[in-house]
Amino acid sequence: xxxxxxxxxxxxxxxxxxxxxxxxxxxxxxxxxxxxxxxxxxxxxxxxxxxxxxxxxxxxxxxxxxxxxxxxxxxxxxxxxxxxxxxxxxxxxxxxxxxxxxxxxxxxxxxxxxxxxxxxxxxxxxxxxxxxxxxxxxxxxxxxxxxxxxxxxxxxxxxxxxxxxxxxxxxxxxxxxxxxxxxxxxxxxxxxxxxxxxxxxxxxxxxxxxxxxxxxxxxxxxxxxxxxxxxxxxxxxxxxxxxxxxxxxxxxxxxxxxxxxxxxxxxxxxxxxxxxxxxxxxxxxxxxxxxxxxxxxxxxxxxxxxxxxxxxxxxxxxxxxxxxxxxxxxxxxxxxxxxxxxxxxxxxxxxxxxxxxxxxxxxxxxxxxxxxxxxxxxxxxxxxxxxxxxxxxxxxxxxxxxxxxxxxxxxxxxxxxxxxxxxxx
Length: 425
Ligand code: SDX
Known about the structure:
- By secondary structure, the chain is mostly helical.
- Among the domains are: about 1-55, Rubrerythrin, domain 2; about 265-370, CATH 1.10.230.10.
- It is built from 18 helices and seven strands.
- The chain has helices at about 30-35, 70-75, 80-90, 95-105, 115-120, 125-140, 150-175, 190-200, 210-220, 230-240, 245-255, 265-275, 280-290, 310-325, 330-345, 345-350, 360-370, 375-395; strands spanning about 1-5, 10-15, 15, 25, 55, 60-65, 70.
- Strands 5-6-7 form a three-stranded antiparallel sheet. Strands 1-2 form a two-stranded antiparallel ribbon.
- A hairpin with a 2-residue loop joins strand 6 (about 60-65) and strand 7.
- The model has no long low-confidence stretch (mean pLDDT about 95).
- S-citryldethia Coenzyme A binds next to loops.
């Protein structure tokens, strides 16, 4: 029990201990018992839920999906198998994986009427705006609001995971004025996305195994990350019992911000600016340390990781391997490595425990594959979809669950009167 003293009165608050030893004070009865609420701008010290999906130990750079270390999954699993693990809480048997994969294939096509929506977007529309809108449009074809244990959940989940890929590829092709390329049932998840993005009506894109595997691993590494900004958004919307597609569409909007998923695009824009300026990175590092510059070392720092983001380590290694295999020498990778080296020896970054995060190297792999910078956060959304769906399912299955509705402390004008317009200054 935790003890709290307020205005000379003692209160006892229950403690909650997580399976990995994390500890919390349960304040769910605080306001009823004391009249007080807690205040925690940005929720840095506030747990919104108890979850069994993902565990992060930020101090030690640990990330596990359903208890399995991310390093093991990155080395031995695939994105689709990991998606199954996150959503249903166990690794699939051979038959379960085959059935799930078939379901994704069965749901990969969009309703033909969806094509008309693409016509309405301006060619310069950001793909994240299109993605969010089109996920909601796709939801119109599966409008049923799910109840706990609803067998339609698996269909809606499979359709969302499968079609987010088709929507992404179609929006990419539209942005270039190219004919859309339909999915091929023979192709597995990530290969089919590359096919839909880069094949031509007269010639199929050459699916290099190392390219398919690198992008598949990027999706796997992005698949979930406990209560980050976009996942918390999905849970918030899911708590009102909204449609799964509406929840995912809201997640896309939250992920878009440059402080969150939009950072992978911001990292490449930062590296390109440094490259074009001829700066070897040291000038930029000084600017990133100076608050007045308004600049940050994008791809660095994390609310939870106060050590190296384990995903960044894995992606950096994959980056070196892929660029070697493609005989691709990217000056931006050299700049990224120089920035990392400088920052990891600079007291400003060390004192604030700012290390590379998942976004620092992922963009370099995507650029080598030929994915345009404005599609990077769309790739992040494709990867994060199983994580959003897993968190949606936790809300759906919780029969005692309540709508999320935080409190606030009001700091506005105290009681005021209406003044007729003729009497106003
Ligand atoms: C993702 O939450 C998740 O799990 C997210 C994610 C996921 O998988 O879902 O991991 C994905 O979003 C990764 C983060 C991608 N964003 C970036 O790379 C953008 C650059 N980084 C930041 O802006 C920042 O580090 C955040 C947003 C990631 C974290 O912000 P916090 O925890 O609110 O930290 P803060 O802004 O309060 O910064 C603390 C200090 C400040 O300096 P002081 O006021 O103490 O002097 O560190 C400084 C900040 O100015 N700082 C940076 C910096 N990040 C923090 N200074 C320079 N460059 C940076 N990148």
